[in-house]
Every structure is written in C-alpha cells, then in structure tokens.
Amino acid sequence: MDVAEIISHHILDHDWGISVGGFRLPVTTHSVTIFAVSVVLFGILFWISRPRVSRSGRLLTTLAESYISFIRDSLVIPNMGAEGRGFLPYFCTLFLFILSINLAGMIPEMKTATSNISVTAALAICSGGVILYSGLKYHGLGGFLKGFIPSGTPGWLVPLIFPLEVVSTVIKVCVLAIRLFANMLSGHMVLLCLLLIIFIVGKMHIAAGIGAFLPAMVLEIFMTCLELLVAFLQAYVFTLLTAIFAGSVIHTH
Amino acid sequence: MEDLLKPDYGVMVLTICNFLLLVYLLKRFAWKGLIGALERREAQIQTDVEQAASNRQEAETLKRELDEKLAQISLEASKKMNEAVQLGQAQSAALLTQAQEQAKRLLEETKAQLKAEKEQALADVRKEIVNTAIMATQKVLQENISTATADQVVTRVLAEIKAKKYE
Questions:
Q1: Confidence (pTM)
Q2: Do A88 and B31 touch (CB under 8 A)?
C-alpha cells in the first residue's frame, strides 16, 4: 500500500454497497456519520429543552440559551437585522451541525464528513436556499432580481452587470462549500502526513524512524489542537458568511 | 485521489434531506422552547429594568418633594418659634409693667392708709388731751386747791398724758 492509497483510505468516503432493487443507496461512512451526529444532536437538544428543576438541568438550559444568544447577537442580528430572527433556528442548527461533524472526525472509527465535497456542497445548497428565500420573502421576485443591479448602473451596462452579479452570488455560495471542504480536508491530510513521516522514515532505517517519532508526535499533538480550533473556526465562518449573504439580499443598497 | 473532488449526488441529496429534517425537528422540539424561554426571560428582565427605572424616578421625585416639604416645615417652625419668642417677650414686658404698676399702686395705697391712720391717731390724741384737760380742770375745781397745788396737779396731769401718749 503506497502513501496515496493510505491517505485515500483514511480521507475518502467509503460506500457500504447497500442497494435495494438494483438502486444504490447512498449509505457511506460519511452519510452514516452525518446521520449519527444528527441523532445525537437532536437527542441532546431535545433533552436539554425539556423543563427542568435540577441544578445541572438548569445549567444545561442556561448553556443552550447562551449559545442561542451568541448566534443571535453575534451572527444573525448584526448581519440580517431584526428580519433575521425568523432564521435563528436555522443558524443555530447550522453552526452546531457543522461543528459536530467537524469534531466527529476526532472520534476513533468516525470520519470528518465535512472533508467530503458532496457534504459541504449540500450544506452550501441549503444556505443558498436560505439566501434565496430571504431575498424573495422581503423583496418579492422583482425586488430580489433588482437587487442584483447596483444603484446608479447605466442602462446599457445592466445586461452585463446582472449576469455577473448572479454568477457572483452563486460563486459565493460555492465558495462556502469549497472553503469548508478544503480546510477540513487539509487538516486531516496534514495530520495523516505527520504520522506517515514516522513510517516512511522507519522504512528507510528503523533507528531513523524511532528518531522521527518524537518530533512527529509533538507536531501531531500541535496540529490536533490546531484542528480543534479550525473545526470551531470553520463552523463559525460558514454560519457567519451565510448570515452576511442573507443579510446582503435583505438589505440591498 | 481525483475522487476527492467528484461529487456523490446520493450523499449530497441525503445530506440535504438529513440536514433539513434536523432543522425542522430541532426547530419544532428544541429551539422553539429554548428561544421562547430566552425571549420571555429577556422580556421579563427588560420589564424589570424599566420598572426599576420608573420606581427610581418615582422615588427621586418623592424624595425631592419630601425635601421641599421638610425645608418648608423647617422654615415655618423657625418662623413660629421667632413669633413665639417675640410674643413671650412682649407678654413678659407687659406682665412686668403690670406688676410694677400694681406695686406702685399698692405702695401709694399703703402710704395713703398710713397717712389716714396717722391723722386718725393725732385726732384721737387731741381728743384725749382735751378730755384730760377737762378732767384735770374738774379735779382742780372740786378740790379747791392753792395755786401751787394746782400747778402741781396740772404738771402731774401733763406728765400722765405724756406717759400715756408714749405707751
């Protein structure tokens, strides 16, 4: 098994090969991870949201309310204004969902599903839907389309500017998917490469491999900490950018 | 490795369905309650803060009014005290004057009474002298005595009168 195969094995999604009546079901490691994360997330939040009187229960409820306040006051309201209140459940779910999937890769036998372009694209499509819906909800179809033409644009430039602005918005949504995918994938590849250094060097000479173990492990621990930070950061960036884009179509200039 | 950028549409659709279902379920069963509780608490806090501000304003107004009343009461008390002192002083002066006048009147009455009693006493003495003189004359005439004897009798009678007068 060469290095590329090892990396592919650890990074790429694996189809479990389940099909019904000749139709392949998309049951893969990543989709199972996503489903498991969703179930756990729903279970925990459903349990937290029940009325409680115990001190620990109140603590969890307070924690959940602090989280909602954070999403509302730091991401939604500053970017979307009061109109964003209706989208608060979406943003609360989005941040937690991405964060949980990012962190799920740290659990043995589970994989970071956000290192799969299909998963991040799906999330970007959902965010694109929210952006589209918020634009249509507050401006109607005409107003929403008019928002793609900057004010003061000469009439003869409109046919050129309009498609450019539409493509720009689509690209923004695509970039959401690529940014998350690239960041999570690269983090995992770096971690894997650092571990592989030990084996590659050890294959050349056993003593060199033992010598490479300590610095590689130190770097591995450092990168794991960095990966934790990146997991939070990317979830935040994805949610923030979705709020900014949605806010830009609500409050057009 | 080229599989990395190859989208799996099945996974994509499944992820979209999974995520949207999760959004719906969490909105319905978790966020709704939590956001509702949070907004109720915030509204309660807002109401409490406004109530506290209103109460504070009311208390300050009340304190200002009470301070003003207290100052007014203090001023009135001071004014009344001054009036009472002045009244007391006036009454004291009037009483003093009255007492002085009464004392003066009493003194004059006493003096007048003494003068009258003195005159009465003098009148009594004169009457006694006359009576004594008449009595002495009667005795002289009854005993038919000599001039020397008469002189002696008169002298004796006068001495008796004198003695009687200063008893």
A1: 0.72
A2: yes
C-alpha dihedral sign at B10, B13, B19, B22: negative
Would you call A46 an interface residue with chain B, using a CB distance cutoff of 8 Å?
Answer: yes
Residue B39: its chain A contacts at CB < 8 A? none
Give B-chain residues touching A45 at CB under 8 angstroms.
26, 29-31, 34
The tens digit of pLDDT for each residue in A211-252 reads 778 888 888 888 888 889 999 999 999 999 999 999 988 887
Triad A32, A35, A37: Cα angle to 5°: 110
Q: Position of tokens 């999604």?
A: A13
Cα(A95)–Cα(A101) distance, integer angstroms? 10
> Over the Cα atoms of chain A, what is R_g?
22
d(CA A109, CA A220): 18
Count of CA atoms in the C-beta half-sphere (13 A) of A240: 10
Q: Hey, which residues 29-58 in chain B have their CB within 8 Å of chain A?
A: 29-35, 37-38, 41
Say if CB A45 and CB A93 are below 8 A apart: no
ipTM: 0.88
